[in-house]
Specification:
single chain; alpha/beta; 4-stranded mixed beta sheet; 30% helix; binds guanosine-5'-diphosphate; binds 6-O-phosphoryl inosine monophosphate; binds magnesium ion
């Protein structure tokens, strides 16, 4: 396989950053295909920890070319700050990506007062809204200072906000001038890389349950993290994407508002949150904790055509006295196996659980599948069977080396 996507199958924070970093060892290009600095991808190795919000998680590997794709919304402040620790990294930015300007953050915060989605307040929704409303500002606008200033002031005016676009540009002018040679047509760049047989990873942010079309609308983000969104967002033919690795946390988490059928409301949630440091990397908010939800996972696997999985944070499951897995929902007395499309219905479902044996052992240093406790193996096979997918990797800790590989995704063929 030469072109592989990494996609979160829950509500984000599944460990996409870690798995992208692990697989990027063998990649030439890593492309973030959607979202912006609402993402928080933590990568750990040796004594280093990197919290990446906008850069692709391949950036730590010196040989990798990092690309911010056309489907992204980019906050220059975050971008310039985040790239500083990587002075030698080759980082390219799409000329068609849209900008998040300071007033987008203001608009996001204002809308939250009444809408209360629990957004990251990074201006994601307002920037994507401007794009869809055909009034947004692309990275290409930065190539001409006066043009940018004119466009940004018109846009701020449309929103009834005063904005000093000249002062804004001036404050980043040196960084912008340095960036200009790396502002590219990503579609063309990918086309050339494909012809040269380069290995390309597409790194998702958020997760399928936060997808604007397939997630728990309206409690979603404003982009399309699911696999089918990748080709259109990067400018590549769909059939060139050879596979996708679905990242699944061994339990569930969600940050922000919105229905979460398997949410745990007991002390156990607190315990897991502390052990696994389940706090948002971008906002510091405590993540809500829940049992694994196979109904939403089957939905995510289907809409994204997932055949291979990486199961992450399996080590944390030893906190659970019993492993509960939601296999169906009950709604108004009926048992259903699909995610209701209307938020009112989804808010009313009751999870129907299967209970599996738990394991108490510390598995964070185990490096082979055979050495995992029997109960952990049973849990893994149960998940694989239910989701009709193969497990390629198992993550038993945040570091690169705490990964058990059952399959090398780069060696998996498309059929
Ligand atoms: P992402 O947004 O999908 O990249 O995930 P985040 O990085 O936001 O959240 C995952 C968190 O779990 C991070 O703090 C990781 O360092 C950590 N992590 C990743 N894999 C594992 C694992 O297998 N076990 C444990 N204990 N932590 C993990
Ligand atoms: P990564 O890439 C978890 C959530 C927010 C909110 C909703 C909309 O680290 O998995 P937005 O600011 O995007 O308009 O917020 O989406 N959200 C995330 N939750 N992980 C993320 O990213 C998220 N990015 C956005 O909490 O509920
Ligand atoms: Mg995250």
């Amino acid at each position: 396989m030469k072109r592989l996507a990494i996609v979160g199958l829950q509500w984000g924070d599944e460990g996409k950053g870690k798995m992208t970093d692990v697989l990027a060892k063998e990649a030439d290009l890593v492309i973030r295909y959607q979202g912006g600095d609402n993402a928080g991808h933590t990568v750990k190795f040796e004594s280093y920890t990197y919290d990446l919000h906008i850069l692709p998680s391949g950036v730590i590997h010196p040989h990798v070319i990092s690309i911010l794709g056309p489907g992204m919304v980019i906050n220059l402040e975050t971008f310039f700050k985040e790239k500083k620790p990587f002075p030698k990294a080759v980082i390219k930015v799409s000329n068609r990506a849209h900008l998040i300007l300071p007033f987008h953050k203001t608009l996001d915060a204002q809308k939250e007062i009444t809408q209360n989605i629990g957004t990251t307040k990074k201006g994601i929704g307002p920037s994507y809204s401007d794009k869809i409303n055909r009034q947004g500002i692309r990275v290409a606008s930065l190539l001409n200072k006066e043009r940018f200033i004119k466009e940004a002031e018109i846009l701020a005016d449309l929103h009834g906000i005063s904005f000093d676009a000249r002062a804004y540009y001036d404050s980043y002018e040196n960084d912008i001038l340095e960036l200009i040679p790396n502002i590219i047509d990503v579609s063309k760049y990918i086309d050339e890389a494909v012809k040269l047989n380069k290995t390309i990873m597409f790194e998702g942010a958020q997760g399928v349950m936060l997808d604007i079309s397939h997630g728990t609308y309206p409690y979603v983000t404003s982009s399309a993290p699911s696999v089918s969104g990748i080709p259109s967002q990067v400018g590549m033919a769909p059939w060139l994407l050879e596979g996708a690795l679905g990242i699944v946390k061994a339990y569930s988490t969600r940050v922000g508002e919105g229905p979460f059928p398997t949410e745990i409301h007991t002390e156990l949630a607190h315990q897991i949150r502390e052990v696994a440091h389940e706090y948002g990397v971008t906002t510091g908010r405590p993540r809500r904790i829940g049992y694994l939800d196979l109904v939403s996972l089957k939905h995510a696997v289907r809409v994204s055509g997932i055949t291979h999985l990486a199961i992450t944070l399996l080590d944390v499951m030893n906190e659970m006295a019993e492993i509960k897995v939601c296999k169906a929902y009950e709604l108004d007395g009926l048992i259903i196996d699909e995610v209701p499309a209307h938020i009112d219905d989804l808010s009313r479902v009751n999870p129907v659980y299967d209970t599996l044996n738990s394991f108490k052992e510390d598995i964070s240093t185990i490096d082979s599948y055979d050495n995992l406790p029997e109960a952990a193996k049973t849990y893994l096979s149960y998940i694989a069977k239910q989701l009709e997918a193969n497990i390629a990797s198992i993550s038993v800790g945040p570091k690169r080396e705490q990964t058990i590989h059952l399959l090398n995704m780069w060696e998996v063929s498309r059929d």
